Amino acid sequence: MSDVELRHLTAMAAVADEGSFGRAAARLGYTQSTVSQQIAALEKAVGGAVFDRPGGPRPVRITPLGTVVLAHGRDLLARAQAMAAAVDRFKAGDGRVDIGTFQSVSNVILPLVVRGLRDEHPDCDIRLFEEETDQPQVQELDLMFFDGRVDGDVEHRKLLDDPYLLVARPGTFPKGPVHPAQLDGVPMVAYPPICDQARLEQALARHGVRPHIVCRTAGNETVLSMVRAGMGSAVLPQLTVHSADIGSDASLRVHALEPALPPREIFLLWQAHRTHSPLAARAIEIAVEVAGRIAERL
């Protein structure tokens, strides 16, 4: 049975539908002898005749064995056609892409990336996985946004630098830029010490600046709510500030830091040596384009 090929089943289905080898050949664009050869090869593979051939103008008749073979053969042909259609859709950019992300990217960059993909490929399946972690797992994802480089078998594409800003209640600091040294010992609300937050605190410590962290939370909105409540100020990436539209909030004031702290670096990661689907490859291209436009605005 391993010798049965789809072309044998295609010929058999055509003969069964048309009632003769000649009409089947015309339908398939073959010669009649080619169709006969395909049916002979099929009969050899299944070990018996699939058609009775009465000869003359009378139509061929399917045998009991042929009925069994044809029923399963049509199913196999339908599955092969479905596979071919799925491959064509895949090559055209439809299909599924899994993207890892985190809060500020989800709010600012990803909506534009998703819209770009959906505009080009309305039937694509985009799945987002948001997680705050300093140990990103890229193996099960097509690509991942992350604020830092990752060791191991991972490829990196830097998207942009995300400068840090100080967010405080009005009157906490004089208007205008704030020197990082002014943050030493002051009450601060901060993210958990993972990802780029750890690098930020290390950069401050190298300059002898140790804020008094009164509360840590992973939620952007929670950080800002704590600042509004007077718990302390916060040093936040500009993407976070931008997505929160703080400029229109009279209860908060945004200060530049001068001299500037090292910016948060945002990368696109994926498993090294992976062959991307057309959809994933296009997602990377759109992400680079979107990040470039955002970097110009920042």
Keywords:
single chain, 298 residues, alpha/beta, 5-stranded mixed β-sheet, 3-stranded antiparallel β-sheet, 12 strands, rod-shaped
Task: Please provide a written account of the structure.
The protein has 298 residues and is α/β, with parallel strands linked by helices. Helices cover 43% and strands 20% of the residues. The chain has helices at residues 6-18, 21-28, 32-46, 64-91, 103-108, 110-120, 195-206, 220-228, 238-244, 278-297; strands spanning 51-52, 61-62, 96-101, 125-130, 143-146, 154-162, 164-168, 187-190, 212-216, 234-237, 253-256, 264-271. The strands form 4 sheets. A 5-stranded mixed beta sheet has the order 4-3-5-12-6, with helices on both faces. The protein has a 3-stranded antiparallel beta sheet with strand order 10-7-11. Strands 1-2 form a two-stranded antiparallel ribbon. Helix 1 crosses helix 2 and helix 2 crosses helix 3 (32-46). The chain is rod-shaped, with a radius of gyration of 32 Å. The mean pLDDT is 90.
Spatial order of strands in the largest sheet: 4-3-5-12-6
Strand content: 15-25%
- Whole-number mean pLDDT: 90
Biggest pleated-sheet summary: 5 strands, mixed
Which structural class matches the secondary elements? alpha/beta
Rg, Cα atoms, Å:
32 Å
Report how far the terminal alpha carbons are from each other: 65 Å
Order of helices and strands: HHHEEHEHHEEEEEHEHEHEEH
Q: pLDDT below 50 for ≥5 consecutive residues: which ranges?
A: none
Q: Treating each run of at least 4 consecutive H or I residues as one helix, how many helices?
A: 10
Say how many strands there are.
12
**Overall helicity:** 40-55%
Shape: rod-shaped
